[in-house]
Amino acid sequence: MADKEATVYVIDLGESMADCHNGRNESNLDFGMRYIWDKISTTVAASRKTWNVGVVGLNTDETNNNENREEYQGYENISVLKELGPMTMTSLRVLKSKIEPSSTSSADAISAIVVALRMIQTFTKKLKYKRKIIVVTNGESPIDDDQSEEVANMLNDVGIELIVLGVDFDDAEYGFKEEDKPRHKEQNEKILKTLVDHCESGAFGTMAQAVEELATPRIKSVRPFKAYDGPLTLGDPQKYPSALSIQVERYFKTKRATPPSASNVANPNGPPQTQVWDEDHGVPFSGVGFQPVKQLRTYRIEDSKAAGGKKDVDMEDLAKAYQYGRTVVPFGKSEEDYLKYETTKSFTIIGFVPMSSYEPFLNMGETGLIVAQKVNEEAELGLSALIHALHELESYAVARYVNKDKAPPQILLLKPNPAIEDDIECLYDIPLPFAEDVRSYQFPPLDKVLTITGNVLTEHRLLPNNDLQQAMSDYVDAMDLTEYGQDDDGHPAEYAPVDDLYNPVIHHMNQAIRNRAVNPDAPLPPVAEILTRFTHPPEPLIAKAKTEIDGLIKAAEVKKVPPKVQGKRGRKDTVKPLSGLDIDALLGETRPRTKKTPIISTENAIPEFKQILETAEDDETIETAAKQMGNIICKLVSDSFADVLYPRAAENLRVMREELINMEVPTLYNKYITKLKESLLSGNLNGDRREMWFRWIVGGRLGLITQDESEVSEVSEKEAKAFLK
After folding, report:
1. Lowest-confidence range among 57-71, 296-310, 399-413, 593-607?
2. What residue ranges define each of the domains in the chain, with the CATH number in brackets?
3. VWFA domain spans which residues (predicted)?
4. Least confident of 21-35, 74-88, 120-134, 593-607
5. CA gap 230, 228 in Å, rounded
6. Rounded average pLDDT over 127-145
7. pLDDT, average across residues 485-489
8. DSSP output for 633-694
9. 62-88 tens-digit pLDDT
């Protein structure tokens, strides 16, 4: 059964909460509400009917609570802003409209706590609930402490946790102390601190610490999910009486977390009648102006006899087909079960391997945890014996795992975890790859050079010398993060432990959603520093290793590469080498600058095209070179047998596109690619050449040059996408 919670927030709305203190640009109320809105929006996002929220306003202009009767005094200017119950976006918006500073500061905070206590008592009765009261105040209004001890006893009897967060309250542990604090505020802090101390469950702190900790992601607690419940066997118990069979349960130890998914809704700029109003509160429902979108999928085939050349097909008439070469092989619905590999639920050990033979890169996925079946002493004894035997022999077990009938089988590696190493005695399992999952590649060795004749060279310009190896070794030692972290006592500890490594994608998205839910018109917050602190090496460590870094740069002869210079219209800038030498002159490739554009050969088109553009002095030369390159591309496509020359033509087209972008003449390319599309799709290049268009040009993103790629282009991104269709 889901945990049931009842939380009441007591919010000080006194006149002094509108002030700004201690250099903040926001009021005390806005500062404290940062914590409240974060907590409430988290409850809304959970969407659990068993999580109930109530809100009590302290120092409100009016009085609205059940305790304000003639026989009770001291409950004036306290109002129930929201009765205890489930929290929704609608009630969140209603509540937000009520959170404003008042013109009074005379209400008693302890009386407001009593109002919240009565709300919880009435709502929860004697049922099992997690009960909590959270008080946010600046401690400026007077507090009567005559019955504080009695109130603490009432909180303890009901089982309520009391949390008091004060704006600019002193906190020695956090290291905050307000200077020139008024005497009455200091006295009120002591009263509230004493009240919390008398409670069996409670906390007292300053709001600055609470707001600071909001950036720390809250890990969602997940209930154990049983992935398997059945026997773990060694041998076949049905055939051999001596076979081993242990009743076990398998749970996930690690499972990939995913960010929240989004759903499509209608454009909010629709007509006003699309808004849905809450008649009880007089405000629009959550998601104002947004309407859910229903998707409708249709299937069509080409049919010359049908209207428009296409005919609708019912889903029942479809069949699954698999690609086989350049054709497809269909299977009927009656044959789909045959395609499934027949398996039965099982968990069988098929062998054992030494621990030293396992390579970490063989891990194929999420880790599982295997324990003995609950309330089964025989299973506990059998699994414990297996775990200790594997541990003593320094071996792993390899098992075939099928979690349910007709499920695909997995090969798991079982690692023993005896109780002597951890609090739990279990087996950890890791999926292993099949032969088809392994990618075997061969790369040249890093410590030697093999010549064509078979000789082995240990000294070569491509191999690091002794000085470079020593410099790299010193650099690695200087950047060691093994014990760079510190524990609570300041002693060296592990740096970036797993418990402090948060997924920035998931938590940044959650924080953005919470912020937008509470403040729809406010800008989204930046990425919290706690999510990015481990994405770069620590600055103090880099400063400490400055000597080793400089030594490595010197030993490796690292030099700055000049940035790539963007070409100018009619003249492409050349990058001068660091040596200052004329590379073209050394290679004998200097071309005389004549008015006549050299002819580009098909065999060496790309280098010659680039050289012409480097020496071009006018637009006519660029246009002539682009025209020649375009003719070569068309000839390659026309002369190609099937798709043999398509890759070469696509590479020429890619170079032509890049060079004309650098020369700032995208119009030349856009005109050419438009004509090329017509020729390819119409069959003017010696047959059906549509594959060249769809696979190499559309697939290779060689379409029109857009304004995002070249400022002088007149083609928008939308036009470029439409051109490729």
Report:
1. 593-607
2. 5-214 (3.40.50.410), 223-441 (2.40.290.10), 468-556 (1.10.1600.10), 566-723 (1.25.40)
3. 6-167
4. 593-607
5. 6
6. 91
7. 80
8. HHHHHHH-STTTTHHHHHHHHHHHHHHHHHTT-HHHHHHHHHHHHHHHHHTTTTS--HHIII
9. 999 888 766 567 888 999 999 999 998
Tell me the backbone φ, ψ of residue 714, rounded to 5 degrees. Answer: -105, 10
**Cα separation, 149 vs 131, whole angstroms:** 19
pLDDT at 711: 85
Chain centroid to Cα 113, Å, comes to: 40
- pLDDT tens digits for range 267-283: 655 544 334 334 334 44
Structural contact between residues 166 and 206, judged by C-beta atoms closer than 8 angstroms: yes
Return all residues near 384 (Cβ < 8 A) that are at least 6 apart: 372, 425
Q: In the beta sheet, which residues pair with residue 284?
A: 277
Between vectors from CA 515 to CA 283 and to CA 211, what angle results, nearest 5°? 120
11 has which bridge partners? 57, 136
Is-contact 237 243, C-beta < 8 A?
A: yes
DSSP 589-600: -PPP--SSPPPP
Q: Which two tokens stand for residue 699?
A: 């697939």
- The structure tokens 């002193």 sit at 170
AA identity, residue 603: E
Q: Is the pLDDT of residue 636 over 80?
A: yes
Distances (CA, A) of 118 to 43, 56, 75, 122, 299: 22, 11, 13, 6, 61
Helices and strands (DSSP H and E) totals, the chain? 20, 23
Closest of 500, 517, 523 to residue 42, by C-alpha: 517
Q: If you count them, how many residues does the chain have?
A: 725
- In angstroms, the CA 55 to CA 37 distance is 12
The 3-class secondary structure across 419-454, one letter per residue, is: CCCCCCCEEEEEEECCHHHCCCCCCCCCCCEECCCC
Rounded Cα distance, 141 and 137, in Å: 9
Burial 83-102 (b: 16+ CB within 10 A, else e): ebeebbbbbbbbbeeebebb
Nearest to 693, CA basis, from 648, 651, 646, 659: 646
pLDDT category of residue 136 using cuts at 50, 70 and 90: very high
Report residue 564 as tokens.
């790539």
Average pLDDT across the chain, whole number: 86
Show the CA angle centred on residue 197, arms to residues 192 and 203, nearest 5°: 75
